[in-house]
Amino acid sequence: MELELEDDEDIRRIARTNRVVAVVGLSPDEARPSWGVARYLQSQGFRVIPVNPGHAGKVILGETVYASLSDIPRDAGVQMVDVFRRSEAVPAIVDEALAVLPDLATIWLQLGVRHDQAAARAEARGVTVIQDRCPKIEFPRHL
């Protein structure tokens, strides 16, 4: 229960302060959860930057898609990385985010996605990590 209360405090802070979100694995398919979450975030005033190598250079939800976090301009101000990939992909995503995103404050792993070792690496660098949760579910309670 204590961890959940701690997560709630973190989620409240994230929802109110992180305004630029890179969504790794964002699909152009409106039926996919990643699209619905990204659209919700936009509706709440967040800037969503799509990351999907299969759609790089295209546009999803009015934003240019990047192949990787490394391809996002450093001055984009990405504060949060929302991960729609399998747990096995998380370590490489976390390492890349830590290396190339100067404003990174949060790594958010979607429902069903966890990687405790990668989370510990990010937390050791001062980055808040939320695992196995969804901002579309969590943020309405805190905005």
TrEMBL record:
Sequence intervals crossing the membrane:
none
Q: Which InterPro entries match?
A: CoA-bd (IPR003781), NAD(P)-bd_dom_sf (IPR036291)
Residues annotated as domain CoA-binding: 14-113
Write one Pfam family the protein is assigned to: CoA_binding_2
Instruction: Check the UniProt entry and state the signal peptide residues, or none.
Output: none
What PANTHER family does the record point to? COA-BINDING DOMAIN-CONTAINING PROTEIN, CYTOPLASMIC PROTEIN-RELATED
Q: What is this protein called?
A: CoA-binding domain-containing protein
